[in-house]
């Protein structure tokens, strides 16, 4: 029976002192017996943690006690073994690198589409106004190869810093359509949607990303698995590690 709770969470929020916060969070997570990675930057926090369920949820609850992180939400999944080898807390220039400092999600998000709404649009073949819906995968090409939404646009990027140039080049082709950007947990598509709107695309972000869609909707309109950056490698739409025989 799976007994290790895994969470992924991020929040764009201004952190004036990420370097000072790093040892505090490292000590707190280590004391709780957790393993994983926490990224800190002035633009926010991004974390992947695993451990005893009470310890993981307690860590998140304590983190939310800080007003800067009160809106943090975590996506949960389970595994039989600890998928991380150690506990790391790193300070970065960005919690997800895009190299476009004017894209500041904590100053204002792009509109988000709930998983259930997206499924309804895909079921009907158009959004609520009858416009064509384009699903845009903002992940790296190797991640897309594990699985994706049916018919999604994939620009075969190798790293997220290539996304802005690809988006600018494709902006004219996306005009007049409802574009829903998506990624694993929401962090990349949040930045992506803001950039797309800046170049004139009517873009939305999938709230909670692929994992949020799996949690609330399941695998409708999805083929394959979702790559994750830990030893589980990929998750099925049931949020379970891929079967060992397929590894």
How is this fold's topology laid out?
Blueprint: E1 4-12, H1 18-31, E2 35-41, E3 44-51, H2 53-64, E4 74-79, E5 87-91, E6 112-113, H3 115-124, E7 133-137, H4 141-144, E8 147-149, E9 153-154, H5 163-174, E10 178-182, H6 187-198, E11 203-206, H7 209-216, E12 222-224, E13 226-227, E14 234-235
Parallel strand pairs: 2-5, 6-11, 7-9, 7-10, 10-11
Antiparallel strand pairs: 1-3, 1-4, 2-3, 8-12, 13-14
CATH superfamily of the largest domain: Rhodanese-like domain
**Record field, number of beta strands:** 14
Task: Return the CATH class of the largest domain.
Answer: Alpha Beta
The radius of gyration is 18 Å
Shape: globular
What is the CA-CA span between the terminal residues? 19 Å
In terms of structural class, how would the helical and strand content be classed?
A: alpha/beta
Second rung of CATH, namely the architecture of the largest domain? 3-Layer(aba) Sandwich
Helix content: 25-40%
If strands are numbered along the chain, what order do they take across the biggest sheet?
4-1-3-2-5
Instruction: Characterize the largest beta sheet: strand count, sense, and whether it forms a barrel.
Output: 5 strands, mixed
* CATH-assigned fold name of the largest domain: Oxidized Rhodanese, domain 1
Number of domains in the coordinates? 2
- Poorly predicted spans: none
Number of helices: 7
Taken in chain order, the helices and strands follow as EHEEHEEEHEHEEHEHEHEEE
Mean pLDDT: 95
* Amount of beta strand: 25-35%
């Amino acid at each position: 029976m799976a007994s290790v709770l895994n969470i992924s969470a991020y929040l764009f929020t201004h952190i004036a002192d990420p370097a000072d916060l790093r040892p505090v969070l490292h000590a707190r997570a280590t004391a709780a017996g957790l393993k994983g990675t926490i990224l800190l930057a002035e633009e926010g926090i991004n974390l992947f943690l695993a451990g005893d369920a009470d310890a993981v949820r307690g860590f998140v609850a304590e983190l939310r006690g800080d007003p800067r992180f009160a809106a943090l939400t975590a996506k949960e999944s389970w595994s039989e073994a600890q998928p991380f080898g150690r506990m790391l807390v790193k300070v970065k220039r960005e919690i997800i690198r895009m190299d476009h400092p004017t894209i500041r999600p904590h100053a204002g998000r792009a509109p988000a589409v709930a998983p259930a709404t997206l499924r309804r649009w895909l079921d009907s073949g158009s959004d609520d106004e009858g416009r064509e819906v384009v699903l845009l995968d903002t992940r790296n090409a190797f991640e897309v190869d594990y699985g994706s939404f049916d018919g999604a646009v994939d620009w075969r990027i190798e790293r997220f810093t290539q996304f802005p140039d690809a988006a600018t080049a494709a902006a004219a082709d996306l005009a007049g359509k409802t574009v829903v950007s998506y990624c694993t947990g929401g962090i990349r598509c949040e930045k992506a949607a803001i950039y797309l709107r800046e170049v004139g695309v009517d873009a939305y972000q999938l709230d909670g990303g692929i994992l949020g869609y799996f949690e609330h909707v399941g695998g409708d309109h999805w083929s394959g698995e979702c790559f994750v950056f830990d030893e589980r490698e990929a998750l099925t739409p049931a949020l379970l590690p891929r079967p060992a025989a397929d590894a």
